[in-house]
Amino acid sequence: MMSAYLMRSGLNPSRQFSAAASTFFKCSKATLQKSAASTSFSKNSQASVSLSRFPGLRTITTGNNTGIVGQRAEPASNPEGIVSACFQRISLLGDEWMLEARWKDGFRSKYPYIWLRDNCQCPSCFCPSSASRRVLLRDLDPSIVPVSFTTSEDSGDLEILWSDGHRGLYMSDWLRERSFSEDTRERRRLIRSPPRTLWGSDILSDLPVANFHDVLREDEALLELIQKLEALGLVIVQDTPLQQEAIFTLTNRLGYIKQTHYGVTFVVKSRVSPNNLAYTADSLDMHSDIPYFEYKPGIQLLHCISQAKGTGGSNNLVDSFNVARQLQELDLEKFQILTTVPVDFIDHGVEEDGLNFYALAKHPLIRLDKNGEVQAVTLNQMVRDSFFPVSVEKVRPWYEAMVTYYRMLLHPNNVISYKMKEGYILVFDNQRVLHGREGYLVTEGTRELHGCYWDWDMVRSCRRVLQRKLGILKT
Ligand SMILES: [Fe+2]
Ligand SMILES: [Zn+2]
């Protein structure tokens, strides 16, 4: 059955199939010439490309009939090589399998042929309403080459006639935004995730805060909350109503909750028969939540409905990434042990609603990304499994490294003790900010926190939506 794509492109499907099969993964010059020669678009047909879809486009052919490879395209009628209002020159670099665009302001970038074909922006290849590529992977030929190209005098749009017979369309601005430069990569990196600001206990004098009502009302306030959370891993939302619905109201501004076996939300309050030590009045070691999930929640919210009246009940918080950097400088061997030795975390039991759970996941205590930057810290003394999935001689050195790191986490220069007031929501990065609790006496009043989790994907998505809405992000 003829595919829609092939019908659109007007090619004989059997020939297209054999061409694709014979050239796939064979990007030699000889293969390219064979592939180009086998299409029905010879040199003689290049000048007769219909431009009716794109008014203002004019054709520039690319040389002799074997000259796609290694030929530079220049319009014969234009000795200065100026081909549009935007572009100064467009050249085909056949030996490199790339097109080079030079803009009038001097900016230049190369674009591989296969990338251009894959990213054609014409309505047949790209669906704007779903922002998705329609080109099927099975139809992609890495040996594809341009036969000719045209540019618009007004807009600078570029049209390329490809050796598969398709006419590809590319906007000048769109191409420029996607240059393969270091700058573009850096811009995209910042859009994915902005840089962090590491902190120590001096943050206590200037804690990042947000106002609940401002965040609900103003996009700028919500964006600021997210940006603080991304940079510092911590925000305190103040002036929140003391109803359980408040964290739903706040969540609805961004997206949705990440549910776990502890429910959509959970209540941190001392219970008679707790299935989690959080549900006692005891002190809790510094920890990350839900370490027994492969994808542990990215962010935790704790909404203070009522606070213990005595001296206990404070939260301890520490920037574990900052302390990981300190350990790296102080003792590289211990740092390397914690970044490589896997640790199992486990949680099994029964929730109040009868749900049985048995969660198990493996993490290094400090996870690095491919650039050696700390990506996540997973520490939880309470639910670290007694099965340790390493050879026996690695056990004691790991404990030495872990205890050294833990003591550094608790250093007064690193940890803060913060007692939430009623009506505060503590929002923190569960990959980065470890939290603990000072024990409290139940005779000194009820301490009740309502919590839930968010994921970073959802929060960062919301940030980009806001940045686009406020005109900060253009792409
Ligand atoms: Fe916790
Ligand atoms: Zn297309």
Brief summary:
The chain has 14 helices and 23 strands.
Describe the structure.
Helices cover 28% and strands 24% of the residues. It is α+β, with helices and mostly antiparallel strands and 475 residues long. A hairpin with a 4-residue loop joins strand 5 and strand 6. Helix 11 (320-330) packs across helix 12. The longest helix is centred in the last third of the chain and has 15 residues, at 395-409. Residues 1-83 have low confidence and may be disordered.
SSE map:
Blueprint: H1 4-9, H2 13-23, H3 29-38, H4 43-46, E1 57-61, E2 87-93, E3 98-103, E4 108-112, H5 113-118, E5 126-127, E6 132-133, E7 146-152, E8 158-162, E9 167-170, H6 172-177, H7 182-192, E10 209-211, H8 212-217, H9 219-232, E11 234-238, H10 245-254, E12 266-268, E13 284-287, E14 299-306, E15 315-319, H11 320-330, H12 332-340, E16 342-350, E17 356-364, E18 366-368, E19 374-377, H13 395-409, E20 416-418, E21 425-429, E22 433-437, E23 448-454, H14 456-469
Parallel strand pairs: 10-11
Antiparallel strand pairs: 1-7, 2-3, 3-4, 5-6, 7-8, 8-9, 11-21, 12-23, 13-22, 14-21, 14-23, 15-20, 15-22, 16-17, 18-19
Helix pairs in contact: 9-14, 11-12, 11-13, 12-13
